[in-house]
Amino acid sequence: MSAMQENSIIQGDALKILKRIDEKSVDLVYLDPPFFTQDKHSLISKTNVEYSFDDKWNDMDDYLHFMQERLSECQRIVKNTGSIFLHCDRNA
């Protein structure tokens, strides 16, 4: 994604997208991953669009492996002067 626009927001499966981004090319990464709630989450928007994701894991090791892969890619793409923000809670 070397032709990425400045100040763009990219949404989707983080691991797939991160692997397409050039090394040391991003100023800010914000991740809002699953929280290891062991539940399925869904909501319906005001326009009647349903959003859902499965937050069930075999064990904490599976979840940590999932997170490690994504955070390693974040570290690879963020500039030396950049920042990584990770939204997390006490579950994991």
Task: Tell me about this structure.
The protein is α+β, with helices and mostly antiparallel strands. β2 and β3 form a beta hairpin. The model has no long low-confidence stretch (mean pLDDT 89). It is globular, with a radius of gyration of 15 Å.
Write the layout of secondary structure elements.
Blueprint: H1 14-18, E1 26-31, E2 39-44, E3 50-55, H2 60-77, E4 78-86
Parallel strand pairs: 1-4
Antiparallel strand pairs: 2-3
H-E string: HEEEHE
What Rg, in angstroms, do the CA atoms define? 15 Å
Instruction: State the total count of DSSP E strands.
Output: 4
Return residue spans where pLDDT drops below 50 for at least 5 consecutive residues.
Answer: none
Query: End-to-end span in angstroms?
Result: 31 Å
User: What would the principal axes of the Cα set say about the shape?
Assistant: globular
How much β-strand is present in the residues?
A: 25-35%
Helix content: 25-40%
Sheet with the most strands: spatial strand order: 1-4
The DSSP helix count reads: 2
Largest sheet report: 2 strands, parallel
Mean pLDDT: 89
Structural class: alpha+beta
Notable traits:
alpha+beta, two-stranded parallel ribbon, 25% helix, globular
In short:
Helix content is 25%, strand content 29%. The chain has two helices and four strands, in the order H-E-E-E-H-E.
